[in-house]
Specification:
The chain has two domains: about 80 residues, no CATH class; about 80 residues, 2-Layer Sandwich (Nucleotidyltransferase, domain 5), CATH 3.30.420.10. It is about 40% helix and about 15% strand. Strand 1 and strand 2 form a beta hairpin. It is rod-shaped and about 105 Å long.
């Protein structure tokens, strides 16, 4: 009946073959669903891969745009349905928070650099700070030391905890790599990690 549907009316063929039209349309709907199931299976693999690539943080709209950018043209509605049916729920990214805690009782050094970020020679002045970095394992704290004359990072350290040890490890690496011949101005914010005694004693 399906092959001759353009030549004869479905009702006439059903009557001639003693078949019901409802059975024919039910069979047709099942065939269409199977085709969609095949396409869904093909798209699902791409959706899952893209979902992992985006660290499981993209919703249907952003994931659809991401896939289209890779040449996989799939609509938001289909992506949303596939994600819902396969329990692909985007993670909520923790908002960035300040890393400087200047509310402490430790002594604060004078601002010798005084925003003079242009120096004449290497290893006259360094600047250092702590920030957040998003990774596949979650947020990590990064302490970095930059040599002002060259603008190069001469020391860095990364950890899950934001401690004085993190800041100290970055400075120790900078000293070992840059090997300054004399005293160096090391400029930082007034955070507790840079003002506490642990940093002064260890470094």
């Amino acid at each position: 009946m399906y092959e001759h549907r353009r030549e004869y009316r479905i009702s006439k063929m059903a009557e001639t073959l003693s078949a019901s039209r409802s059975s024919y349309y039910a069979w047709k709907r099942q065939g269409c669903q199977s085709k969609r199931a095949v396409r869904d299976a093909q798209y699902l693999a791409k959706v899952k891969k893209a979902f992992i690539e985006t660290r499981e943080t993209y919703g249907p709209r952003r994931l659809s745009k991401h896939l289209c950018g890779q040449g996989v043209h799939i609509g938001r509605v289909r992506v949303e349905r596939l994600m819902r049916e396969n329990n692909l729920a985007p993670k909520t990214i923790r908002k960035f928070k300040a890393t400087t805690n200047s509310n402490h009782d430790y002594p604060v050094a004078s601002n010798i650099l005084n925003r003079n970020f242009r120096v004449a020679a290497k290893n006259m002045a360094w600047i250092t700070d702590i920030t957040y970095v998003a990774t596949q394992e979650g947020w990590l704290h990064l302490a970095a030391v930059m040599e002002l004359c060259s603008g190069k990072i001469v020391g860095w350290a990364m950890d899950k905890q934001m401690t004085a040890s993190l800041a100290c490890d970055a400075l120790k690496q900078a000293i070992g790599r840059a090997k300054p011949p004399g005293d160096v101005i090391c400029h930082s914010d007034r955070g507790v990690q840079y003002a506490c005694h642990t940093l002064i004693v260890r470094c």
